[in-house]
Design goal:
single chain, 123 residues, alpha+beta, Trna Endonuclease, Chain: A, domain 1, five-stranded mixed β-sheet, 5 strands, 37% strand
Length: 123
């Protein structure tokens, strides 16, 4: 793995850690982190007042490539939805209220990252 690839993974993990703490503080129950099935992954699966929430976390060090949330394109949304379906299938969940959230984390100020939470980011 190249150094920049490794750094991306480390930064991504840091972002997911911050997101999980953020959600817990907001009263979410974290059910899974980095849930993998086949070739895909869901960053965080949580419960919020009985609703199953699939959370995509995007982390950036700076705005060189734009806001972190702009990395979530149509293809990524389709992949997240497919993973959510596989999660429900794998866990044998037949009836559940579900939603998709996005948490964008910007590390411009390392000691105080900017966290933006988009509830119901897409349908």
């Amino acid at each position: 793995m190249e150094k920049s690839e490794k750094n991306k993974k480390v930064i991504g993990k840091e972002g997911e850690e911050i997101a999980a703490k953020f959600l817990t503080q907001k009263g979410f129950e974290i059910l899974e982190r980095n849930y993998q099935y086949s070739h895909g992954e869901i960053d965080i699966v949580a419960k919020d007042n009985g609703v199953l929430v699939f959370v995509e976390v995007k982390t950036r060090l700076n705005l060189e490539f734009g806001e972190p949330e702009y990395a979530i394109n149509r293809k990524k949304i389709q992949q997240i939805k497919k993973m959510a379906e596989l999660y429900l299938f794998d866990k044998e969940i037949e009836e559940a209220d579900c939603r998709f959230d996005v948490i964008a984390i910007l590390f411009e100020d390392k000691s105080n990252p900017k966290i933006t939470h988009y509830k119901n980011a897409f349908i």
